[in-house]
Amino acid sequence: MHNLALALHKKGYHVSGSDDEIFEPSKSRLEKYGLLPAETGWFPDKVTGLLDAVILGMHAKADNPELLMAKELGVKIFSYPEFLFEQAKDKKRIVIAGSHGKTTITAMIMHVLQHAGIDFDFMVGAQLDGFDVMVKISEDADLMILEGDEYLTSPIDLRPKFHLYKPHIALITGIAWDHINVFPTFDIYVDQFRQFIQMIEDDGLLTWYQNDEELQGISGSNSGIRTLPYNKPDYQKKGRNINLVVGQDEYPLHVFGDHNLQNIAGAMEVCRELGISDQVFAEAMSSFMGASKRLQLMGDGEDRSVYLDFAHAPSKLAATVNAMKEHYPDRKLVACMELHTYSSLSEDFLKQYKGGMDAADQAMVYFNPHALSIKRLPEITTEQVKEAFGLEGLLVYNDSSEMLSELMDRDWKASNLLLMSSGNFDGWDIPDIAAKITS
Hints:
The protein has helices at residues 2-10, 26-32, 65-73, 80-88, 102-115, 186-198, 213-218, 258-273, 278-285, 314-327, 369-374, 382-389, 400-408, 430-438, and strands at residues 54-56, 77-79, 92-97, 121-123, 135-136, 143-148, 152-154, 157-160, 169-172, 205-209, 226-230, 235-238, 241-246, 249-252, 296-300, 304-309, 332-339, 362-367, 395-397, 415-420. By secondary structure, the chain is α/β, with parallel strands linked by helices.
């Protein structure tokens, strides 16, 4: 939401807003542009008939006093994705969807478009090198690329966000059950993607990962579009070096793992549809360093490295752990993940994690009992977590300081640390941890 505020401010809109809590980096960035509220909280008197619109974030409640005042006054109310579509309705819209990899593919395409000198608008779910903000809205760009999240639109609009974007070009990376709190069965979850495919504009394109069984079943559900499956691009692997092959030329990559090769293949298909040659695409990809918290290298030593990843869903977890082990077969892998989301903290969903960390030499899982109470979920125990993962030797913690002590006391010779969470392990200073381990 703060990135949207910055984007609208830069476009010349007069922007104000409220929130009950404002964290970094949002706080400093809003303050830099004079948009930081003088105080936190909800102030319905700020909402008047002089406003052109109110944009409603997902984390506001349906009984929010400012929202109720906007309704009473008849002020136009947009959800975040509704407003993005309003700004992009006259542009060619590219939407990247799927249960995993969508941020990375969106980032790859943005990187290539920037390299090719093509103007475009965007919304992406991570801070990227070379981009000041995560949302850009302009008058001049003919394209808008959107990361298509399947989570709900707003507290008063329970449609998935990506149902509002109506893409001309769509990509789906794969389908693996997530967001159990709003999609209680896998069939309901899959149906959201089926509906998304049916919303692609006539004569549009759907490109999709061809080895995903669910996509094999639903990719043809819109007869008015073209469909194009992808797998992996031509590449050469030489030790830890991976080169993208285009014709007779090889281009070194900084990202690794089968899932990232799949991501590259999908991004390449989208860029081809936009008229970008494979050579220009490969040139750009050779300087792509990845998105924030997507196998992000936090520290590197002579025989050890520390990586940070957003992985929290079972499919993301397994892909990330396997990628690390395959890339560094000569090093032990210590993999730590935090159960942080509604789904991951659900007793009914935990069994989905079985086998997800089997490739690690030492696996650790942390959950905060306080997070369960905040989310109003039933308590879970360390034994339930161990049983769900089904991994001998798994260490489970409900105190993050104990987990950190265990990590800092380890011998890190010829070992890597992989940290995976959509949270922050209750405030760990991860750059400092990485520096101490790799020094």
